[in-house]
Design brief:
By secondary structure, the chain is an alpha+beta fold. The protein has 8 helices and 19 strands.
């Protein structure tokens, strides 16, 4: 069972999409798991052949527990269940696992393929204790209440453990707004770009200048990410919020980003997301301009180290080329982890974002 966020302790397996003997490829969706944030499609991380489905549908499974066994390509005999590969685990986490009686082979690291940390062991221990109690409750789950509880736990952890610092700047977005309006006039209704799309691309590209905002704090150290997987905060029907990843946002065209955003938003509101979309975001972008919010300071979602906030576009008197004119202005904010970066580096990021929005044609 993969970890689909810092607030996840367990998930209920609701559907298998493969059976023993099926060949699978990395990235293929093989199961559906119900979490506090809805139904999540679980992808496989290796090529091979399904040897055995260990967990039956309907069971609530702690993070890190084995769901199925896989044979590597060309492997004729199933790997012995009693001899799994040795887990990569920090010494302190291994000691803690021994003290708590946790099998390290059942612990899932926060990042796929990463080193198991003390926090991962603590999460697995908490999930093991919580699972029997949860299974004993026959009443139908209140998913909205569970989601609010999960969000509260993650945000409380963030504010307790992460030394946030906050920056804000007003950006003249007259040029990018005009460019977008002219671009959309040339397009059919179905091909038009939402105003947030060039902002997404600008945020992703600006991170190249300040890579310490893009990555994860894991096991007491920062782990930068070579890729920019932009977590887009999206409201769910019935309440709640998720921030699934738009993968490689800095490398995609505006049209590709628009297609990805439309696809993921549709599936969020339909309650159907993929595991990688929930676990992969390297930074989160929250835009509340459509709700009339002029500025917001987000709380970092661990193990990420930064979140960007964008407010609504307003018309203001603005000094421009030696005169005062009415310009379109947007407030951009940054909440970042002071263990990894500082205000100077955060300011460079916001300055880079502002510069990119003055040349929108280069964001294509």
């Amino acid at each position: 069972m993969p970890s689909l966020g810092a607030d996840m302790e367990a998930g209920t397996l609701v559907e298998w999409l493969v059976k023993p003997g099926d060949e699978v490829k990395r990235g293929q969706v093989v199961a559906v798991v119900e979490t506090q944030k809805g139904a999540i499609e679980i992808e496989i991380w290796e090529n091979g052949t399904v040897d055995r489905l260990v967990v039956e549908t309907g069971r609530k499974v702690p993070v890190g527990e084995v769901l199925a066994l896989l044979r590597a390509p060309g492997e004729a005999v199933a790997a012995a269940p009693g001899a799994p590969a040795r887990a990569r685990i920090s010494p302190s986490a291994r000691q803690l696992a021994g003290e708590l009686g946790i099998d390290v082979q059942s612990v899932q690291p926060a990042l796929p393929g990463g080193v198991i940390s003390r926090a991962d062991v603590e999460r697995a221990a908490a999930a093991r204790k919580a699972a029997p109690a949860a299974a004993a409750k026959p009443a139908a789950p209140d998913w909205h209440a569970q989601m609010r509880k999960a969000i509260a736990a993650a945000m409380s952890r963030s504010k307790r453990e992460i030394p946030h610092y906050y920056l804000a700047t007003d950006i003249d977005v007259t040029v990018v707004s005009g460019w977008l309006a002219a671009e959309n006039v040339k397009r059919g209704v179905a091909e038009r770009l939402l105003p947030v799309v060039p902002l997404m691309k600008a945020v992703a590209v600006a991170l190249r200048a300040v890579p310490e905002l893009n990555g994860f704090w894991v096991d007491g150290a920062f782990r930068p990410s070579a890729a920019v997987h932009l977590g887009m905060a999206i409201a769910m029907r019935g309440g709640g919020l998720v921030a699934p990843a738009i993968h490689d946002a800095d490398r995609k065209s505006l049209d590709a980003l628009m297609a990805d955003l439309r696809d993921v938003a549709t599936r969020v509101r339909g309650g159907r997301l993929r595991g990688s979309e929930m676990s992969d975001p390297t930074i989160t972008l929250s835009s509340l301009g459509e709700q009339g919010v002029e500025g917001l300071f987000g709380i970092i979602y661990p193990p990420q180290v930064a979140i960007v906030g964008l407010g609504k576009v307003t018309e203001r008197a603005w000094a421009h080329h030696g005169t005062v004119a009415v310009r379109k202005v947007m407030t951009a904010t940054l909440s970042a982890d002071h263990r990894v970066s500082d205000g100077h580096r955060g300011g460079l990021f916001l300055a880079a974002l502002a510069r990119l929005l003055q040349e929108p044609e280069k964001l294509r």
